[in-house]
## 1
Amino acid sequence: MENEISIETKEPTCSICKTAMDTEEIYCSECGFPEKGTDKEVAQFHARRAMENNQHMDADKKIKSARNVLYVMAGITLVFGIISFFNNQDIAVLVTNVILGVIYLALGSWTSQKPLVAILLGLLLYLTTVIISAILLPETLIKGIIFKIIIIAYLGKGVYSASSIKK
């Protein structure tokens, strides 16, 4: 019996993402790796990829900080509502603060799935509560101004980072 040697022509694939490529293609259509490019092009690809990875890690840190701010806001809102209720016996303040606290908690947990939407809604909710309280009691606008600026800054950085990841 004769041994038959079968030669399989294997379709070329990208070294990085393993996507099938045409033999004429220089760049992978999926990830952009220069499979048949020069050493300089390969080095530029890896450098660009490393920079994008660092930017992504930095954005993740800012999103995590914004998530933590939402959790802290939930805690502060709940504690303030309870303290205010015991001092003034005002059930409306308690209910309002419990609802706000639960919303902040939900938005904080939602940042793992939809960070841009969750952080943006958290920022808008916070700004809305600050504006409403300033309309009802103007002296509250000045009270805790540094705290308010810090919260807005963290949430703003989180929105910016989440939008840059989405791009």
Note: The two ends are 61 Å apart (CA to CA).
## 2
Amino acid sequence: MADKSAIRAEAARFRAFFEAQGAQLVDPPILQPAETLLDLYGEDIRARAYVTADPALGEAMLRPDFTVPVVEMHMQGGAEPARYTYEGEIFRKQEEATHRAPEYIQVGFELFDRADPAAADAEVFALIAEALAPLGLRAATGDIGILSAAVSGLSTSEARKRALMRHLWRPRRFRTLLDRFAGRAAQPEGRAELLARSDPMACDAPLVGLRSEAEIAARIAALIEDAKTPPIPEVEVALLDDLLGLRETMSNITEHLRDLAVDMPAISPAVERLAARGRALAARGVDIDGLDFEGSYGRTALEYYDGFVFGFYAEGRPDLPPVATGGRYDALTRVLGRGHEIPAVGGVIRPELVLRLGEGRA
């Protein structure tokens, strides 16, 4: 394991590379207001972030990533287009089984540009690929925008679509909900009995917990309404399964997706955006004949990605996390821009992994 000074030196090398591409250096505070992150991710973020209290900030979190503070900074008056780079520690709780450090250094590149999103996607990907080229890594790509469009186009209630979208980044929970909404799986234990009562609110037990009686009543009303909703048609579930199971090269995936779009017209605009991205990547010199596309890729990342997603991996080292990851997060700029928005895409590199892999090649 390289010492911290060597990791910082490696991070500085990447940062200088991005600065040479026109990126402005920024240095967001390590301590971030918790309110913003809780608004974005809900209480789930507490399981991944280190939470503390500050007399001035109130509830605060050690920086779990750079993208959110960089977007906040840019939306307060950044130029257009804008390119930023940064380096420093981030802090994320890890499951014991991962054996990964809860604190590590990232260096990144973020691009805010509304002129040509496909070209911006290609620029970020190609620059990170160039920076990591000596390591011979495998790149994987996906598109959360296509998955979101597919869910939005399902023949079901808006409440069910919202539930599926909320868990798009949690594959097991998403599958459980999809199977239930399609009638493939039974309702949770006790729900049918509850809804069969003439008055589901009638109960001998006292109301406990954080929910008020009105909130519990609203929840029961939503469950009753959901129980009346017809199952999602099996043909649509099968098409969604096909989409999630896709594995192809970028050069071949577009026609396959266009074929799916005949029966899933909701995904057509997102598929054409992917096609434009493929052309832009090829124009940047990326070998799209050898670039992998995975239909389900990116679903375990932070939830702000809503379009292109990518990662770079060391083949033969499944014990290591991705050396670099990134993607598009247009919706995040809408949330943090408070009425303003701008298409944005970025990526991060973990320099300590670069050093470890470099040592293995020495």
Note: Residues 128 and 347 are 8 Å apart (CA to CA).
## 3
Amino acid sequence: MKLLGLFIFSIILFQGFSEALSAANSTGNSLTKEENKAGFQMKYGLKHLNCNYACAMRCSRSSRKNLCNRACNSCCFQCKCVPPGTYGNHHLCPCYASLRTHGNRPKCP
């Protein structure tokens, strides 16, 4: 009797593992690797950028910190990136570098 119970338990356990494995394989094949990675990051928030902190670092040496932080945060929320350092490095965040004011001047510090 105990042998029959152990046999049934092992079959149920094996079936659970096989269903989990097939579900993981079927969802992984429907998306490309980049789409799957982006979806995972959006779902679990792994690619979240703290704009306030990044802009505080970016504007730490500015003579007009409030103005710099306001512009930087606006750019960060749109682009989801802030170039490292306190000046330059715009090539590392192309969206940040491409934003312009109404006077066609760079918007982001």
Note: Helices lie at 2-30, 33-44, 51-58, 65-79, 94-98.
## 4
Amino acid sequence: MTVADSQTDWLAKAREVLDIEAQGLAAVRDRLGDSFVRALEVMAGCSGRVVITGLGKSGLVGRKIAATLSSTGTPSFFLHPVEGAHGDLGMIRHEDVIVAISNSGETDELNNILPSLKSLAGHVISLTGGIHSTMARLSDVVIDTSVPCEACPHGLAPTASTTATLAVGDALAVCLIDWKSFALDDFRRFHPGGALGQRLTKRVEELMRFSPLPVVPSGASLGQALDVLNAGGLGCVCVVDGGGHLLGLLTDGDVRRLVCAGRLALDAVVDSVMTASPLHATPGQKAAEVLDIMESRAITVLPVVAPDQTLAGMVHMHDVLGQGRVKFSRS
């Protein structure tokens, strides 16, 4: 067998594994229903902590879910079931919610402490492929995470099942972000050492672009403005007076609407079609505040105006987020 043949075979095997895992995710997605919503309601209403527990590979998945929940506004920690049976149940409070993870639902070490957990905490939610299992019977809410098959050729090593469980945990965390209106500023407070947190504490003047800026003078033709718009690469062109004061903005969207309305006249004065007194940022604004404005208005770039109303620069969403350099997790 040649090297090329060997490579082709291994790539085919790798793609088969990914296909199996994708099929498992699709199966779990299609089964999501009332139990997921009920689990979400219980977790959103939790006034204590969401306590994740599981053993082996399920425990490793549980640690990641707990970390994701904690970093996105839902206090959470991982409880090892064996340690729980030897005193760590003392960490549980009645206002806590338990999320138990087991693919089979028949993990003895976990099921042995579930009655105690249920008596100590408010609710028990289970993520399991065994919806008729012992763990499921001991739970208040059961989310079915069963998959058609594992990617392991022997059907033994948890592969597709752990991927599916991890994805359900992510789905719960992301839904809770929206439920709790967890904003970028909240994320920054929980990630003061991360790259995103550091960038969002900066001021606009530290991130904005100074030159060359896409600018045309008041009175320029629409054709001239389109040339600058096309060359600028920011999706907009600023219109300024003789003193450099910002008068208006022409965007890609404005041009598209003119074309659709049959009103695109290249000899028209740009002032007649620009957005006058446009939304803008100031040099001293925090990047987090500007990013919130961009997200709420569905825009990606803002002119930056100095106190004397002169155009000081432009700031793009990529400038705030770091143009791909920002990482939300560490590997």
Note: Residues 199 and 268 are 41 Å apart (CA to CA).
